[in-house]
């Protein structure tokens, strides 16, 4: 009866639930119960073939080769491809998926990390009276709610602040954000609200207060995109889908339809990228879910096929966590060139982006320096002048390619709506293209519906609404406490494992080695400042990680958070994987080099390292030069014109500071531009000039010399009288 009373108090107007005060609590309880019923319905009668342990990659490859014929072969292991695999296998279709690189190695791991309907798309829909865009936003908001429900460990609601600097904008933005809430209807995460200037600065103290009149806060979702993608793929594997990464399609298989006489697809000839072995995978239907590479597979099917995908590059940067509050994002709705910039807390860091520029399709997109500078300029506009936004604070940067669907003659990618299309070729190749991360499930459902209809396959209805993903079933917000109590893990590490793996965190904890310390008892970190532990490398192999890059970028997110920390962790990751996978020394060296190139080019290490080079110019005034000269000569006692590790070690010992010799070599090597084992005065001035300009912000040598100088000066300033006398 309580539910009925709640429903009587709830009226739906244009898809918006409007409740009275008396029925609100009952309606909330009703919604929770309905969500539980949907979940139960989704999981009912679904057999989880591999509930205890995932089949190995070798077993998956064997299944691909030994199965006489699959119902569906999906090409592409991003969010959409993995979503198609999960949708198909839970409808009792024999399902296969191949990915030529790693799962989520492309666009799906390089997003803004938001699960959202798209505020700017709703604005365009209203301004242009575009019903199609309106429905896309409405669908995305429904999918947002579902994704937060089925993977609560990997996702969470995030408040996002929209600062307002002109009084007339306040009602304009307020109406737009309230419309966003209304379109979400019963799927609205939390109601948006207004903030006064003082409250906005209280919540976001880094904000530029000049001319600020107030702010509006609304809610969207945030997730760990690569691990979310992986969770979808692993869930499909547990239900019986044969999935394999590093397996590429060499060419499509065709046969003649005996009834029509036309050619039709019957599978694909594939190659294991790691071993070079080639084999056929037979299937009644082939699905093209290759994202930016959509046209490549379509033209493999039919050479003269017109292109339908126009790629757009989106660059993001990662900055230290102190640039944003722990639980409040920021939206810049109108940048200097009309784009939208998000400034969000993520994994205890701050992510800023994105750009939107036409690009060529490549498997290895590189973040451009001008895009990084553009984001930094926009960030400076919104942060207080007290916060110095430095180029040296960019810890990582990456570029992702959006697979936008458009007319081939269109030139402006910014005006393109990210709607998706499902097309079927003459030979039966079913292509799913376009769309956005948030709507992957709905896109997969529509695709598999098209497969079933076109090929007349016997299958039940879609079961993925409410279907919990890998790690979600036993997860609770307090799961990390059990990890601390049962295994002796650090609290920060336990929280990380719980959010990254859900209830599978216990499997990771069981693999953790004893530290030999009083605390933590288990869990050796890969690098000191991040909660990733060595056991995750071993568990990553069970999750089909095949390379060091897979671990750095997608099983952990270290490569996306801090390229220098990732570079430091790399040798140990290769060592652990090499031992577990029996790699030769040649293979280990190859993995090291490949991962370093990945960090250097794709994760922004190149831009980071090029801020201090032989050709760097010195921009210091006379007083600065003299100050740094005095500092340098405190270490260069013999006036050689350079300092070595011996010089630095001597000074450090005099002030009772001890640094490992290998670490000291690394510190000097960062500034030794000539690579001759010493830091010359000219190199030191280049370093200090770069530090002053904000190009370098974390030079260990600069900080070390400055702190040592301060200690020496303090000692020299103590007089005989103040020291208690003497002879």
Can you offer a commentary on this structure?
It is an enzyme of class 1 (oxidoreductase). The chain has five domains: 1-45; 57-109 and 227-307 and 417-455, 3-Layer(bba) Sandwich (FAD/NAD(P)-binding domain); 157-221 and 311-403, D-Amino Acid Oxidase, Chain A, domain 2 (2-Layer Sandwich), CATH 3.30.9.10; 478-609, Alpha-glycerophosphate oxidase, cap domain (Helicase, Ruva Protein, domain 3, Orthogonal Bundle), CATH 1.10.8; 617-714, EF-hand (Recoverin, domain 1, Orthogonal Bundle). 42% of the residues lie in helices and 18% in strands. The strands form four sheets. Strands 5, 6, 7, 8, 13, 14, 15, 16, 17 and 18 form a ten-stranded mixed sheet that branches. Strands 3, 4, 9, 10, 11, 12, 19 and 20 form an eight-stranded mixed sheet that branches. Strands 1-2 form a two-stranded antiparallel sheet. Strand 19 (420-424) and strand 20 (430-434) form a beta hairpin. It is globular and about 90 Å long. Residues 1-30 and 717-727 have low confidence and may be disordered.
CATH architecture of the largest domain: 3-Layer(bba) Sandwich
Range of strand content: 15-25%
Give me the oligomer status: single chain
The helix content is 40-55%
Mean pLDDT: 87
CATH topology of the largest domain: FAD/NAD(P)-binding domain
The H-level CATH homologous superfamily of the largest domain, spelled out, is FAD/NAD(P)-binding domain
Q: What is the CA-CA span between the terminal residues?
A: 95 Å
Which stretches are low in confidence, meaning pLDDT under 50 for 5 or more residues running? 1-30, 717-727
Number of helices: 26
* Biggest sheet details: 10 strands, mixed
Please count the beta strands (DSSP E, at least 2 residues each): 22
Overall form: globular
What's the domain count?
5
Radius of gyration, taken over Cα atoms and rounded to an integer in Å: 28 Å
CATH class of the largest domain: Alpha Beta
Q: Structural class, please?
A: alpha+beta
InterPro entries: DAO_C, DAO_C_sf, EF-hand-dom_pair, EF_Hand_1_Ca_BS, EF_hand_dom, FAD-dep_OxRdtase, FAD/NAD-bd_sf, G3P_DH_FAD-dep
Subcellular location: Mitochondrion
Main location: mitochondrion
Family: Belongs to the FAD-dependent glycerol-3-phosphate dehydrogenase family.
């Amino acid at each position: 009866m309580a539910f009925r009373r709640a429903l009587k108090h709830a009226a739906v107007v244009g898809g918006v639930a409007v409740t009275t005060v008396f029925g609100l609590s009952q309606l909330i309880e009703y919604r929770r119960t309905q969500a539980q019923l949907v979940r139960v319905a989704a999981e009912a009668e679904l057999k989880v073939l591999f509930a205890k342990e995932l089949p190995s990659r070798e077993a998956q490859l064997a299944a691909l080769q030994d199965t006489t014929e699959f119902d569906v072969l999906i090409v592409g292991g991003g969010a959409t491809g993995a979503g198609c695999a999960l949708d198909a296998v839970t409808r009792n279709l024999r399902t296969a998926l191949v990915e030529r690189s790693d799962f989520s190695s492309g666009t799906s791991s390089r997003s803004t990390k938001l699960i959202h309907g798209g505020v700017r798309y709703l604005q365009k829909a209203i301004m242009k009276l575009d019903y199609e865009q309106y429905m896309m936003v409405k669908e995305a908001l429904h999918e947002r709610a579902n994704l937060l429900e089925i993977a609560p460990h990997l996702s969470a609601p995030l408040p996002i602040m929209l600062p307002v600097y002109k009084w007339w904008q306040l009602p304009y933005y307020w109406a737009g954000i309230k419309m966003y809430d209304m379109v979400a209807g019963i799927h609205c995460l939390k109601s948006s609200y207004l903030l006064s200037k003082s409250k906005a600065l209280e919540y976001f103290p880094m904000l530029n207060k000049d001319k600020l009149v107030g702010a509006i806060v609304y809610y969207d979702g945030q997730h760990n995109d690569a691990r979310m993608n992986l969770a979808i793929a692993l869930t499909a594997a547990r239900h019986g889908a044969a999935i394999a990464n590093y397996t590429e399609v060499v060419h499509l298989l065709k046969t003649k339809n005996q009834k029509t006489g036309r050619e039709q697809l019957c599978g694909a000839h594939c190659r294991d990228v790691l071993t070079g072995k080639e084999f056929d995978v037979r299937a009644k239907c082939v699905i093209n879910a290759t994202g930016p590479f959509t046209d490549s597979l379509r033209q493999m099917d039919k050479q003269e096929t017109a292109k339908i995908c126009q790629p757009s590059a989106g660059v993001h940067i990662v900055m230290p966590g102190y640039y944003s509050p722990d639980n409040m994002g920021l939206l810049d709705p109108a940048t200097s060139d009309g784009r939208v910039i998000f400034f969000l807390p993520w994994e205890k860091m701050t992510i800023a982006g994105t750009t939107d520029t036409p690009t060529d399709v490549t498997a290895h997109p590189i973040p451009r320096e001008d895009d990084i500078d553009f984001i930094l300029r926009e960030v400076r506009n919104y942060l207080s002048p007290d916060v110095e936004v430095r180029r040296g604070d960019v810890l990582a940067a990456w570029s992702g390619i959006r697979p936008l669907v458009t007319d081939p003659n269109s030139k402006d990618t910014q005006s393109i709506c990210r709607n998706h299309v499902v097309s079927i070729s003459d030979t039966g190749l079913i292509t799913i293209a376009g769309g956005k991360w948030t709507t992957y499930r709905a896109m997969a459902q529509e695709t598999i519906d098209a497969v079933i209809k076109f090929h007349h396959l016997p299958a039940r209805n879609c079961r993925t609404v409410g279907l919990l993903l890998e790690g979600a079933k036993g997860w609770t917000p307090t799961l990390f406490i059990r990890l601390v109590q049962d295994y002796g893990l650090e609290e920060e590490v336990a929280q990380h494992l719980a959010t990254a793996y859900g209830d599978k965190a216990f499997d990771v904890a069981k693999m953790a080695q004893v530290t030999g310390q009083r605390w933590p008892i288990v869990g050796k970190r890969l690098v000191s400042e991040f909660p990733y532990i060595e056991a995750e490398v071993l568990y990553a192999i069970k999750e089909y990680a095949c390379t060091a890059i897979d671990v750095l970028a997608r099983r952990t997110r270290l490569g996306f958070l801090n390229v220098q920390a990732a570079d430091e962790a790399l040798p140990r990751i290769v060592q652990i994987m090499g031992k577990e996978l029996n790699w030769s020394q040649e293979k280990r060296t190859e993995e090291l080099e490949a991962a370093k190139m990945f960090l250097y080019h794709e994760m922004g290490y190149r831009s980071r390292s090029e801020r201090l080079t032989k050709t760097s110019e010195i921009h210091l005034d006379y007083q600065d030069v003299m100050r740094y000269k005095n500092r340098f000569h405190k270490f260069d006692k013999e006036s050689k014109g350079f300092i070595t590790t011996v010089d630095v070690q001597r000074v450090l010992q005099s002030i009772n500071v001890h640094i490992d010799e290998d670490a000291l070599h690394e510190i000097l090597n960062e500034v030794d531009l000539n690579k001759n084992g010493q830091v010359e005065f000219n190199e030191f001035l280049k370093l200090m000039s770069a530090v002053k300009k904000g190009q370098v912000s974390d030079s260990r040598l600069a900080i070390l010399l400055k702190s040592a100088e301060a200690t020496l000066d303090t000692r020299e300033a103590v007089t005989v009288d103040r020291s208690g006398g003497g002879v």
